[in-house]
Amino acid sequence: MKVGAIIQARMSSTRLPGKVLKELPYNSGITVLEQVIRRLKKSKNLKKIVVATTTEKSDKVIINIAKKENIRCFRGSKEDVLSRYYFAAKENDLDVVVRITGDCPCVDPEIVDLIITKHIEAEADFTTNCFKRTYPHGLDVESFNFNILKEAHANAHNAYEKEHVTPHIYGNPNVYNIIQVEAPRDLYAPKIRITLDTEEDYALLCVIFDHLYIKNEYFNAYDIVNLFKEKPWLCLINKKSLQKKAYNSFKEECQQAIKALDLHGLKRVSNFLRKQLNEDHNLNRRR
């Protein structure tokens, strides 16, 4: 059984363009993407690592990083990330795909191996630690079988299903055997955010690497959680950053928009939007 990680990465991020080329530690010459790749190389269960990027000219730099790190690279659709994953997995003859995003430079290979082991032992179709948030944001791992990825590629039609790869799979729990892996008590830290979407996220990651990287280049999840216990003020650095995700309805998007508006003190607009949602809800109940 060939188990491989596919790292999705591109230069044209909407919120922080070129984020995978940010350096960690700061001014070290080591990019975020290189940190992700090097950490995944420490996994005992991964047989192959592939970077899946787009056919855009700007993503040539990502191909160069993959070559430098001596791993495979695949170029596919910019918008249809699901097809990018499918064809990358097919080209590399993967039986089990581990989905990793290129903006998670703290990815822990031990957690990756745990997800893979749980997935294989349970004979699951899809295994994740993301549904019920128990681990910090940024230690996310999804594992799924190639035949399930093939079905999703054939049957997913909505734009959000194609952009976020796995919604078609976890959206059909009656069809697929789905396993949720929760963090042990010592790693339970759902409020910690160590992924990279904003400048504030980058500032926090720079602090984390300044404290931990000098002691151990491959610091793990326990090191991170313990650092936050020692310095709880770290959470304040990117407190206003919200996790980007797919939403199944207009109502869910509005609710997330209200959270963002409230975080930035735009109360009049958030109250207006909240009022509109309540009016729509009451109207639907009367019908």
UniProtKB/TrEMBL annotation:
One of its GO terms (cellular component) is cytosol. The keyword Nucleotidyltransferase applies. Gene3D superfamilies: Spore Coat Polysaccharide Biosynthesis Protein SpsA, Chain A. One of its GO terms (molecular function) is nucleotidyltransferase activity. It holds the Pfam family CTP_transf_3. Keywords: Nucleotidyltransferase, Transferase. InterPro entries: Cytidylyl_trans, Nucleotide-diphossugar_trans. This is Acylneuraminate cytidylyltransferase.
